[in-house]
Design brief:
The chain has 278 residues and is of the alpha+beta class.
Length: 278
């Protein structure tokens, strides 16, 4: 993990009441984030851990050591393990090169994004402890990402977002909706790798709204919260879904042009509203 000072990051010390957002500063904080990921992904959401992960009760992979780990910390928690209540994994272009590639490249052809000039940022492994799945925690996570993007001049933010379950037919409505209403432009569009590609066009798009009586607003509202967050920030999805058996999910690749983040962030994650603090 690259050693970066708080002044460079520009996000350490940002607090809302008992909660603070910052980058993990040492290996013990990264381990606590990996333990939170295990509790949420494997114990709560039904992902399938490898034997060594189950023994350690930690979610980890080879990419972790090259990433920076954004944390939401509860300063009223009795221990370090319990204090990490939210996390996001961040990796920029150069760190991904040292690793041998971005995580998303195991599911998608992202060569169009990699060919862009300037900095790009992959985000992933996002999770929040159940008691803290509320507006203040998401405010802090997104504010941390927004400050990070600004500090490093990131032009494109991207990553894999998940829908629950591994049966694409059961997800026909949201996948069809995402393809027809939120597909990225061809010049930026990630495409699922051929051996993993699942066509998202599982229904006639008119049948979603006409036969099922679902408005676009209601279709949007029924998406997972994280995916809605990306779309609210002006995000788009790539072509093709990918079934992830390990995590018991069906993934879509999302991307956001960061010049849209500041304006839309201020509208949807207004840190001036302190009445919602726990």
């Amino acid at each position: 993990m690259e050693d970066l000072s708080p002044s460079v990051l520009g996000i350490n010390g940002l607090r809302l009441g008992r909660l603070e957002v910052r980058i993990a500063q040492d290996s013990s904080e990264v381990r606590a984030a990996q333990q939170l990921r295990y509790r949420v992904f494997y114990e709560e959401m039904g992902a399938h851990p490898q034997a060594d992960m189950a023994a350690k009760k930690m979610d980890y992979d080879s990419l972790d050591q090259y990433c920076e780990h954004l944390l939401v910390i509860d300063h009223q928690a009795p221990s370090l393990e319990e204090s990490i209540v939210g996390t996001y994994r961040l990796i920029r272009r150069e760190a991904a090169r040292k690793h041998g590639g971005f995580y998303s490249s195991s599911e998608y052809d992202i060569s169009r994004l990699e060919a862009l000039p300037g900095e790009i940022l992959e985000v992933g492994r996002s999770c929040v402890a159940q008691p803290f799945r509320n507006r203040p925690t998401m405010q802090l996570l997104w504010r941390g990402i927004a400050d990070y993007v600004s500090a490093y001049g990131v032009n494109i933010l991207f990553g894999c977002a998940s829908l629950p379950g591994t049966d694409p037919e059961a997800l026909a409505v949201p996948l069809t909706y995402l393809y027809h209403y939120h597909l990225a432009a061809p010049s930026l569009r990630p495409v699922a790798l051929p051996h993993r590609y699942v066509d998202m066009r599982l229904m006639d798009p008119s049948s979603i709204t006409v036969e099922q009586g679902l408005s676009q607003l209601r279709l949007f509202s029924e998406l997972p919260p994280l995916l809605k967050g990306y779309l609210r920030l002006g995000g788009f999805v790539g072509d093709g879904a990918v079934v992830d058996e390990q995590f018991n999910t069906t993934d879509v690749c999302v991307l956001v042009k960061t010049d849209l983040i500041a304006d839309r962030y201020s509208k949807h994650y207004d840190l001036k509203n302190r009445d919602v603090l726990p």
